[in-house]
């Protein structure tokens, strides 16, 4: 891989994985934990659709999936941003909609130590998705997103979740 093609940060790794799979939109309520994903995706031509709240972002990603047959993508910030998505996530599960939810998370070294918006997110999300990946290394961001996109379409379609700690994205 040439130096020019090596992503400068984790947000670019996520955006490149989405772009390579033909993702056209990311539905979101912009937040600091996920900003690098949004900036890099916009630079690659992926449209960023900012909504009024996180549940609307997931409902919109679900609608895009139903209309196109391709995975819809939503990105939300950590903690309360993620908890706000549960109703729409469950709706996508029941409708068998292929969907990828990208969730921000506290920095890896500060998880479980009271960092901003740090909560145990996986136990909240796991009952409503068919695939969960908690990323621990920058190099795993792109592959985790690729796995989530594929899993959302495999067998019975449904939502997937990738937790992206803020320190890995920047």
Give a written overview of the molecule.
With 170 residues, the chain is α/β, with parallel strands linked by helices. Helices cover 41% and strands 18% of the residues. It has eight helices and six strands; from the N terminus they run H-E-H-E-H-E-H-H-E-H-E-H-E-H. It has helices at 10-20, 35-43, 54-68, 80-83, 86-95, 122-125, 141-153, 166-169; strands at 25-28, 47-50, 72-76, 99-105, 131-134, 159-165. A six-stranded parallel sheet has the order 2-1-3-4-6-5, sandwiched between helices. Strand 1 (25-28), helix 2 (35-43) and strand 2 form a beta-alpha-beta unit. Helix 1 (10-20) packs across helix 2 and helix 3 runs parallel beside helix 5 (86-95). The protein is globular, with a radius of gyration of 14 Å.
Radius of gyration computed on alpha carbons: 14 Å
Number of helical segments with 4 or more residues: 8
**pLDDT under 50 segments (min length 5)?**
none
Return the average pLDDT rounded to an integer: 93
Q: How does the SSE layout of this entry go?
A:
Layout: H1 10-20, E1 25-28, H2 35-43, E2 47-50, H3 54-68, E3 72-76, H4 80-83, H5 86-95, E4 99-105, H6 122-125, E5 131-134, H7 141-153, E6 159-165, H8 166-169
Parallel strand pairs: 1-2, 1-3, 3-4, 4-6, 5-6
Helix pairs in contact: 1-2, 1-7, 3-5
Summarize the structure.
The two termini are 21 Å apart. It is built from 8 helices and 6 strands; from the N terminus they run αβαβαβααβαβαβα. The protein has helices at residues 10-20, 35-43, 54-68, 80-83, 86-95, 122-125, 141-153, 166-169; strands at 25-28, 47-50, 72-76, 99-105, 131-134, 159-165.
């Amino acid at each position: 891989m040439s130096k020019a093609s090596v992503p400068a940060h984790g947000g670019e790794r996520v955006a490149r994985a989405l772009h390579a799979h033909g993702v056209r939109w990311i539905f979101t309520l912009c937040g600091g934990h996920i900003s690098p994903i949004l900036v890099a995706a916009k630079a690659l031509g992926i449209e960023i659709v900012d909504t009024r709240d996180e549940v609307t972002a997931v409902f919109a990603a679900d609608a895009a999936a139903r209309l196109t047959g391709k995975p819809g993508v939503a990105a939300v910030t950590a903690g309360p941003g993620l908890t706000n998505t549960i109703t729409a996530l469950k709706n996508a599960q029941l409708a068998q909609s292929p969907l990828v939810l990208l969730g921000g998370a506290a920095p890896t070294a500060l998880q479980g130590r009271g960092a901003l918006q740090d909560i145990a997110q996986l136990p909240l999300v796991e009952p409503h998705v068919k695939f969960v990946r908690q990323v621990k290394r920058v190099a795993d961001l792109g592959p985790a997103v690729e796995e989530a996109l594929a899993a959302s379409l495999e067998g019975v379609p449904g939502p997937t979740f990738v937790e992206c700690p803020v320190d890995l994205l920047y």
